Amino acid sequence: MAMAITTATATANSRWSFSSMRSAIPSVEVGVRTPSRVSFPSSNGRVSGRTCSKQIASFSGLCPLNPLISIGSSDYNSFEQNFTIVDNGYRVFAMRHGKRVPKLNRPPDQRRALLRGLTTQLLKHGRIKTTRARASAVRKYVDKMITLAKDGSLHKRRQALGFIYEKQIVHALFAEVKDRTPNIPGREVSDRWLTNATALILFLFYDHDEHPKLKLAGTHPAPACSVTKPLSSGRRDAAAEMEGLEGLIDRLMEGRKNKGKKIQLIEPEIRQLCTTVKQVFLSQPNLLQLGAPINVCGDIHGQYPDLLRLFEMGGFPPEASYLFLGDYVDRGKQSIETITLLFAYKIKFPDKFFLLRGNHECASINRIYGFYDECKRRFSVRLWKIFTDCFNCLPVAAVIDDKILCMHGGLSPEMQSLEEVGDIERPIDVPDQGLLCDLLWADPDREIRGWGENDRGVSFTFGADKVTDFLKKHDLDLICRAHQVVEDGYEFFADRQLVTIFSAPNYCGEFDNAGAFMTVDSSLLCSFQIIKPSK
Fold first, then answer.
1. Is the peptide bond between 223 and the residue preceding it cis, with omega within 30 degrees of 0?
2. Where in the chain is the domain with CATH 3.60.21.10?
3. 253-531 falls under which CATH superfamily?
4. Residue, of 315 and 59, whose pLDDT is higher
5. Is 301 a catalytic residue?
6. What is d(CA 454, CA 457) in angstroms, rounded to the nearest whole number?
7. Which residue in the list 171, 360, 408, 483 is annotated as catalytic?
8. 414-454 residue pLDDT tens
9. Which family does it belong to (predicted)?
């Protein structure tokens, strides 16, 4: 389906800008249940989740809010700058100041940088400022660009990115796209939509097989990760924003078909995802009060295929409610896919999907153990810093039906009441000692009574007597934590008063451990689902 368009040529005085992209994050009510007793079955069972409840009504668009790459003014000091294009058949060069710069067959990292730089320029300068004479002068190169983009091949479209490095070609390109859009009576679109150049650029970057010609012409929706609808009076269409989030989740689900496949993500959408999920975390308490039934999961550590297996066993949200105990990144090969999917589910189902902080959700730790390197290799150090800001807002503990206390690490000698956990202010870095440090780092120890030194060099170990005393004092039945590899995916301590859960099977490819998650039903009957190591 095509749409009618105004044919007015953009002038040098026309300006445009994106409106604020903040999402309205509603407050989330977390239910509290009547206390009941925790019990464990003699054999494993499986519990189905509850039906979907309230979703967040708005998700901010996945476009960059600020310039992503600064481009030197010496290279782009004037729209009137003259340059000569030399076509050698397979390669195209731009001749400027006597320099010959290849435009095609760039390495993937350079293509991504080029794409981000181009997006920055489009956002910075807005509507196309060009004359028909200038557009005609580069028309054949614009034609080649459009032809490559319409071809439908991802490789061809990425090649086409090489043609849109020069501003004059960019301007002429969008002038041509506007002129070529079919005019069909009864369907109109504003000039404002046409200035959303980001949608077109994102299209070139993705592998879309359906109707590439229509998408390029502006008559078919652009990729789900982009903002395809114009802003109206500074307010976003909530349905379109949620559709963008669902599109991101759909792309992340491609890992189910092709194990270990790197999912095609772009930095602006991840940055916006982090901005939104941070608001969700801060809208909920630091000590979550949750209700059963719920699935409780341990460390994931970037093992994205195993995370998808976990959801296949327990049910994809919102079929079941989930509580994750931390350590989503580091060590594994796909930390970015892992944390992106978890953040997306948190935004979409804020009152059925919960994430606690682990000791690896800390800049000083994931700077060393892999997450920093993955962010730097695939995107940028800046994205790693944005993730770090999100991690500093994660809650640190949860109580299920007033009977099961959940955290990543363990108990602390400084914790006299659960209210102290809720009083920890966020955002916050993990300190070297104290209550927050112990909640993320402490370990149980069968060989001691009381408190002992931790071999990790951080926090403490605690004996079974401390578990018993704590449960009795606070009228709890069970402590559920993660933080340690256990052979069967779960392991009891202190006469089944504490359980360790680890959800990353075949950890790091070096351990032959199983993974597991704990299912808590409405009567607080706890059972364990085993995730066997992949063969």
1. no
2. 253-531
3. Metallo-dependent phosphatases (3.60.21.10)
4. 315
5. no
6. 6
7. 360
8. 999 999 999 999 999 999 999 999 999 999 999 999 999 99
9. Belongs to the PPP phosphatase family. PP-1 subfamily.
